[in-house]
Amino acid sequence: MEFLNTLEQSRFLFWLTAILGMVLIWGLGLFFIRLINKAVRSDRVQTVVNKVGTWILLFISMMYIFSFLGESNWMSREIVTIGDTEVTPMLIIVIIFALVVAFKLSNTIRHYLLPPVYDRYEIDRGPRATINTLLHYTIIIVMIAFSLSSLGFNFSSLTVFAGVVGVGVGFGLKNIMNNFISGLIILFDRTIEVGDRVVIDDTFTDIEEIKIRYTIVRTRLNERIIIPNSYFLENKFINRSFTNKRLRVTIEVGVEYGEDLDLAEEELIESIYDLQATKYGRLLSNPLPEVYVENFDEYNVSLVLFFWIDDQAEQAEFVLPSEARKIIYKRFYEAGVSFAFPRQDLYLLNKQFENQAK
Q1: Which of 64, 69, 327, 357 is at a distance of 20 to 30 A from 79, taking alpha carbons?
Q2: Topology (CATH) of 189-239
């Protein structure tokens, strides 16, 4: 009995129990991870299992250690009180560690587990980004809530904190909360998605990333513009990819007066069919290419050619019209159709000037 009392006073049994518990947690955890890896054949799934399993084991180990260190004076020392809950160093450490684990789990799931699912069900780039963002913040909230509840945190005390935040919003955080809520609305109603081509103040941009507070867009000059999310709810903008990514391309051609307009129209249409027969398969056969006489200008008859492509990428939007113009130039030359260019005819009405000219 005296020996046991001595061990108890030296806290030997306390630390022995803690060490044995850690060994048991990691032993069982690694056993199940190895068991799952043997059951699956995919290297990607095994990578996910190893990463997620390791971080879950770290989280469980951390919570287990905190359950033993909870009796320590410095870990349980009160820093501040929120409602009925005492904020202690242990609580702060748990929140920080929960955030780290949540970020690691989120990155692993989004980068390793979800891409094959997206590919299998052919989910577009925009919905992928929305799902990833919502999943990321959901994992963070759930992980923090689980960690705090396991420590006996009283969530009703957050009503006091919410009141303080409400006052802060009224004074200085209005714009931040406005952008935050706007980000949630954008993610759910999908007025814009990652990959969309958006025209903002006459600037063509591509949506590169939608954050919870702001959106990153890329211009044609490869510049990044940071735009608050509230902008997309309060201002007009053009989303050229809202329903589909099809784009109508316009090419204007001027031919001389006196040329056969039917022949010129036929050559323009055939030029697009020639382009479609080449390596550029992004041209759409429906709607069909169309040619209209747009105007009788001062020096030429203006014709306008319309055709459709299925992609708004810069290669399609700029390269295809360029290739089409090359084919048009060649076909016009072979068919004898002349392009118009500015010129002036001078008529001498005075015979005196005519004689001098002779």
Answers
A1: 64
A2: SH3 type barrels. (2.30.30)
Q: Is 11 left (phi over 0), alpha (psi -120 to 50) or beta?
A: left
Distance, CA of 270 to CA of 327 (rounded, Å): 9
Rounded CA-CA distance 117/140 in Å is 22
Integer-rounded Cα Rg, in Å, for the chain is 35
**Which residues are CB-neighbours of 159 under 8 A, at least 6 positions away?**
83
96-150 pLDDT per residue, tens: 888 888 888 888 888 888 888 888 887 877 788 888 888 888 888 888 888 777 6
The encoded tokens of residue 112 equal: 């390793």
Give the residue extent of every domain in the chain. 1-171, 189-239, 247-335
Chosen CATH of 247-335 out of 2.60.40.10, 3.30.70.100, 2.60.120.1440, 3.40.910.10: 3.30.70.100
Q: Are 179 and 169 in contact (CB under 8 A)?
A: no
Distance (Å, rounded) from C-alpha 236 to C-alpha 231?
9
- Give the C-alpha separation, 259 to 264, whole Å: 8
Alpha helices by DSSP H, 231-350: 231-234, 261-277, 314, 320-335
Predicted model pTM: 0.62
Q: Are the beta carbons of 94 and 66 closer than 8 angstroms?
A: yes
Q: What is the mean pLDDT of the chain?
A: 81
